[in-house]
């Protein structure tokens, strides 16, 4: 589950050397792991084409080329730069490699080539040279398989963004731990299948320099998900209230409520306006129903102190009512979704101030458009990664922020973050977000801390979609939730 930032790689390498592990020893293991992966996955290659850069990534490429030659393979080596490599370890690797080196511009793709990209590593922050972009175009046009060393050249290891062109790898062999840019889009797509190789870096060093961002995984919340006690009743195991919109917009609330019940909430109630009572009653059995039209009705509802967790937003409508309801719930646990998020676009500070004190009890679930309405400056800042945008937003709002997408990021005010990687494309369907809101509410109601509740909800959302398979609808998705 550990992820590392690109700038931590050099720190880890330096700490290894201080611990008595030579840098060249790590490079040798890394390069040979690349050659082993190439021989294993592409044993029928007519030629392995190794593209090398000037730094340690290129050094890994020289070691891989040498190992492939020793295995009897045909190898062609092309370098981006003129002159010697820029690091001592890479210079040694180049000196020990018996393969002639040609200029990158001289590479002509041939049928049967397998390309090994060892040009730039995860620390790249600038655009690619024109000669490399031209080479990328040739490789991609020829449809050749590509193995990336550490990360595909041109992918930013911090943000996952493409820096003016990048190779599209079929396999990426990375070292120590995955990089954040390999988890975020589009870097995840350009990485292809990711293989993480242990090159001998001590775990204590990985843990010391690991990012505060990790991969979303059940270990994040398992401590809160034990079996129910023998004296559990429906209120003690999670009473959740979901607010419904009008009669013709009530389906979203029912999706959220049904998902919450499936995820283990002990008692789920839909609070609906008068006009939506009949349509909700006609579609529900185990879900309770309560008439709530205005602030007075809400105040009466809140007199029941057993009701501590709420979902507001799915199909509710944008406007003053959503804002007033959200602020009235400021002392309770709240999942704010969809219309309720947009309702604060003119005065987001009102929401943030209301939840500023005490434990984190607010979960926000915006997609990119909704995020830009609450946090326009963060959304517009292209220097920030998706993780950094979510972290800044979480601190500002004193909330857990689920920044949704194919690479959903969950962040909390303390700076923790996870990237979710188990969600299939089939989740891009109407109502899927309502189901996610219901899952968040269910885990909050079961007394998970807000960050753990959000991480659990996002992971179970993806897990259910994977098992549901093709033809996914939001209604069908609920039947595959297993917690």
Description:
The chain is built from 20 helices and 17 strands. The protein is α/β, with parallel strands linked by helices and 483 residues long. It folds into 2 domains: 6-211, Rossmann fold; 218-478, 3-Layer(aba) Sandwich (UDP-N-acetylmuramoyl-L-alanine:D-glutamate ligase), CATH 3.40.1190.20. The strands form 2 sheets. A 10-stranded mixed β-sheet has the order 8-17-16-15-14-13-12-9-10-11, sandwiched between helices. It starts with 5 loop residues before the first helix and ends in a 5-residue tail after the last helix.
Quick gist of this model?
This is Bifunctional NAD(P)H-hydrate repair enzyme. The chain is α/β, with parallel strands linked by helices and 483 residues long.
Give the helix/strand layout.
Elements: H1 6-18, H2 23-41, E1 47-52, H3 56-70, E2 75-79, H4 88-96, E3 101-103, E4 113-118, H5 130-142, E5 146-149, E6 171-175, H6 180-183, H7 187-191, E7 193-197, H8 203-209, E8 213-215, E9 239-243, H9 251-262, E10 267-272, H10 274-283, E11 288-291, H11 295-302, E12 309-312, H12 320-328, E13 333-336, H13 338-342, H14 348-354, E14 362-364, H15 368-374, H16 376-380, H17 386-397, E15 400-403, E16 409-411, E17 417-419, H18 432-445, H19 450-468, H20 474-478
Parallel strand pairs: 1-2, 1-4, 2-3, 4-5, 5-6, 6-7, 8-17, 9-10, 9-12, 10-11, 12-13, 13-14, 14-15
Antiparallel strand pairs: 15-16, 16-17
Helix pairs in contact: 2-3, 2-4, 3-4, 9-18, 18-19
Known CATH architecture of the largest domain: 3-Layer(aba) Sandwich
Please state the overall shape, judged from the principal axes of the Cα atoms.
elongated
What is the CA-based Rg, rounded? 26 Å
Which secondary-structure class do the elements indicate?
alpha/beta
Under CATH, the homologous superfamily of the largest domain reads: Ribokinase
User: CATH topology of the largest domain, what is it called?
Assistant: UDP-N-acetylmuramoyl-L-alanine:D-glutamate ligase
* Contiguous uncertain segments of 5+ residues: none
Distance between the termini: 20 Å
Question: What about the largest sheet?
Answer: 10 strands, mixed
Helix content: 40-55%
Query: How much beta, percentage-wise?
Result: 15-25%
Average of pLDDT? 96
Number of helices: 20
Count of individual beta strands: 17
CATH top level of the largest domain is: Alpha Beta
Total domain modules: 2
Instruction: Give the spatial strand order of the biggest sheet.
Output: 8-17-16-15-14-13-12-9-10-11
Keywords: ATP-binding, Isomerase, Lyase, Metal-binding, Multifunctional enzyme, NAD, NADP, Nucleotide-binding, Potassium
Pfam family, one: Carb_kinase
Subunit structure: Homotetramer.
Family: Belongs to the NnrE/AIBP family. In the C-terminal section; belongs to the NnrD/CARKD family.
